[in-house]
Amino acid sequence: MSQRVRGVIAREKGKPVEVATIVVPDPGPGEAVVKVQACGVCHTDLHYREGGINDDFPFLLGHEAAGVVEAVGDGVTDVAPGDFVVLNWRAVCGNCRACNRGKPWYCFATHNAARKMTLEDGTELSPALGVGAFVEKTLVHAGQCTKVDPSARAAAVGLLGCGVMAGIGAAINTGGVTRGDSVAVIGCGGVGDGAVAGAALAGATTIIAVDTDERKLEWARGFGATHTINAREADVIEAVRELTGGNGADVVIEAVGRPETYRQAFYARDLAGTVVLVGVPTPEMTIELPLLDVFGRGGALKSSWYGDCLPSRDFPLLTELYKQGRLDLDAFVTEEIALDEVEQAFAKMHTGDVLRSVVIF
């Protein structure tokens, strides 16, 4: 039988979010109902509210979450009721051309639940990134559930569901950062600091954090940045080169998603270095670069989708590193809030006061 629970929806473009009663159906084949314990407030949720993703209102917001599986549908074998899981929004299909090439992190046919959660009047909801986790219980595809150590703090490991994983993966999976590398990270919010932490885990010896906010730069130092650059006070390209023997960084990770910062990343890398774009641009943004510079500087220009992660591989590993004290996921959690405080959390994003606000159920 369906259940009625409380959740946060965006009913109209640009309007404040609201707490509403959500009808969660029983899981169908391949699906699971998860009792959410914690869900981070991510910029992507704000993009949904502002109509920056699509116009399929109303949205059930939230996607960066951890919780306990309550029920599963027919054919589900990988998770069972009682399992502690981190939710993900790229549940691989195993059959598309990317999966068949042995690169499932690029899966082109990721799974979502087929059944729909609704409002009490029957209005179908669009779950953010196919998850919809600002809600006491959510319906997802079972492949969106990854089992991790149940002793881990839900508020911390739930952040692997999006922003922190995107940053760590941008460094390790997409950028291929390895021991002895020099790395520059432009933009030190949750994703950027995840990239700093990932670079530190991978053994980079020079990790340069770039931002315009001294508070964020201080946070980046805590995650492993060896040097910081305030972009309001210094020429970023020249400053990165100065810190890398005049050469530029081996890997530059752009975690802002703007043409001007991408251009900085392009010219702040060493010859044959790598640029990784993990910041999400808006549809109207364009960039112009001299084609001769693209050719002459060599290397690689990459985009990172969700940190090119494979949840079944990466979530348990990173949770174990967290449990060992080698990855400080707790430091990403600035505050724990109630379900009805999501709108205030969005406001705090604009002022730069938080890395992550996390809704606790």
Kindly describe this structure.
It is a single chain. By secondary structure, this protein is α/β, with parallel strands linked by helices. The protein is built from eleven helices and 18 strands. Strands 3, 5, 6, 9, 10, 17 and 18 form a seven-stranded mixed β-sheet that branches. The protein starts with a strand and ends with a strand.
Structure, briefly:
The protein has 361 residues and is an alpha/beta fold. The protein contains 11 helices and 18 strands. Helix 7 runs parallel beside helix 8.
> What is the count of helical runs?
11
* Number of E-type strands: 18
Are there runs of 5+ residues with pLDDT below 50, and where?
Answer: none
Binned, the helix content reads 25-40%
Strand content: 25-35%
Q: Please state the CA-atom Rg, rounded to the nearest Å.
A: 20 Å
Overall form: globular
Average pLDDT, all residues: 97
Q: Main sheet? A: 7 strands, mixed
Helix-strand topology string:
EEEHEEEHEEEEHHEHEHEHEHEHEHEHE
Distance between the termini: 22 Å
> Structural class, from helix and strand content?
alpha/beta
